[in-house]
Write a structure and sequence with these properties.
The complex is a heterodimer.
Chain A lengths: L4 E6 L2 H15 L5 E5 L10 H10 L6 E5 L2 H12 L3 H4 L2 E4 L3 H13 L4 H9 L4
Parallel strand pairs in A: 1-2, 1-3, 3-4
Chain B lengths: L19 H17 L1 H11 L4 H14 L1 H6 L2 H15 L4 H15 L6 H19 L9 H12 L4 H13 L24 H18 L1
Helix pairs in contact in B: 1-3, 1-10, 2-3, 2-10, 3-5, 5-6, 6-7, 7-8, 8-9, 8-10, 9-10
Classes of the chains: A alpha/beta, B mainly alpha.
Chain lengths: ~130, ~220
């Protein structure tokens, strides 16, 4: 059974990479993990292309859970999901959860073999 | 082209196919306007957001100008979809997918030679797509506060001058609003007293389009 992939999307490459480091420390290499941070020219912001690329890198047949920070990260992630090939589109979700805590708990669930629905709902329990 | 003219010398809304030169002029007018106002848009966004709207929009529309020859040669639906895709790819920030969705939806809805009625229906659908993308409604101090009244003016038969006026007034009307969507919503009451940068960029693009189309 494949583990759910985790994608971290922040406006800041440093935040995204740092959160990914924390996830790796928790779950090692068994969970597919990728991050996207920064706008198309590398400044603060988000990039549709970088997010799409991260989804492909973290791809798992069990699905992919995306953790985002602020507005543009969510909007670009949702756009990226819609533009995926039809057979993948339904297996990627954006979690309404804090980015760092959400990524760590989602990855921990994933490493135990949880389904995409469980990974998402566990991460979303962190949101008030 | 078989552009009919009204007594004032303006083209009427019912017209034949849009030729390459007209498409080129319209793209340049809208893109140049956005690029020329990037500092103003950035300043508006710096007041109530993250200060990147002008730079983001400039990057997107400069990329469109680089493809001007190819874009002008496309039929209208393909042109609009290509513009939408380019904005999604290049703008970044929430405005990339939001404006991208507007143009992609217009490209999907508009026939190659739209009548005025078809244009109004397509614009209304495209604005609905932006609402869905942004999970937002009128009155939240966003670009929708310009796009929605313009869609209504278009549906009720407003001429180019009326559309431009509607867009300009609607952008001004975001000044006293309190933002409840987008980055400005973090500021709560402090978002009051500033024009929304997305509303401003929308009104600029609509005004530029109306001016060039009526020229």
């Amino acid at each position: 059974m494949a583990n759910v992939g985790i994608v971290i999307v922040s406006h800041s490459p440093k935040v995204a990479e740092g959160a990914a480091d924390m996830v790796r420390q928790m779950v090692g290499d068994e969970v597919p993990l990728a991050w996207a941070g920064g706008n198309p020219t590398g400044g603060l912001g988000t990039s549709f292309e970088a997010i799409t690329d991260a989804i492909h890198r973290a791809w798992s047949d069990a699905g992919v859970a995306i953790l985002v920070d602020l507005g543009g990260a969510e909007t670009n992630s949702e756009m990226a999901i819609e533009m995926l090939p039809e057979d993948k589109r339904g297996r990627v979700v954006v979690c309404n959860a804090p980015i760092v805590e959400g990524a760590v708990i989602a990855a921990t669930e994933s490493s135990g073999g949880a389904s995409l629905d469980t990974v998402r709902s566990t991460a979303e329990e962190l949101s008030p | 082209m078989t552009a009919a003219q009204d007594p004032a010398g303006h083209r009427t809304a019912e017209r034949g196919p849009i030729d390459t030169q007209t498409k080129r002029r319209l793209i340049v007018a809208v893109a140049d306007t956005v690029v020329a106002h990037f500092e103003e848009l950035t300043a508006l966004d710096a007041s109530i957001g993250d200060g990147d709207h002008g730079h983001n929009m400039k990057r997107g529309f400069e990329a469109i100008l680089q493809d001007l020859d190819a874009l002008s040669a496309m039929d209208l639906p393909e042109l609009l979809k290509a513009v939408g895709t380019k904005l999604v790819m290049k703008v970044g920030g929430a405005s990339g997918p939001l404006y991208g969705t507007l143009f992609l939806a217009l490209g999907k809805e508009l026939p190659a030679e739209p009548t005025r009625r078809e244009a109004a229906a397509a614009f209304a659908s495209a604005v609905a797509a932006v609402r869905a993308r942004g999970k937002s409604e009128a009155g939240q101090k966003t670009m929708l506060d310009v796009l929605i009244p313009v869609a209504e003016a278009l549906a009720s038969g407003g001429d180019l001058a009326a559309l431009k006026r509607t867009a300009t007034i609607a952008a001004e009307a975001t000044v006293p609003m309190r933002a409840t969507r987008g980055r400005a919503s973090f500021l709560g009451e402090r978002s009051i007293g500033h024009m929304d940068p997305g509303a401003r960029s929308s009104s600029l693009m609509i005004a530029a389009f109306c001016d060039e189309w009526g020229a």
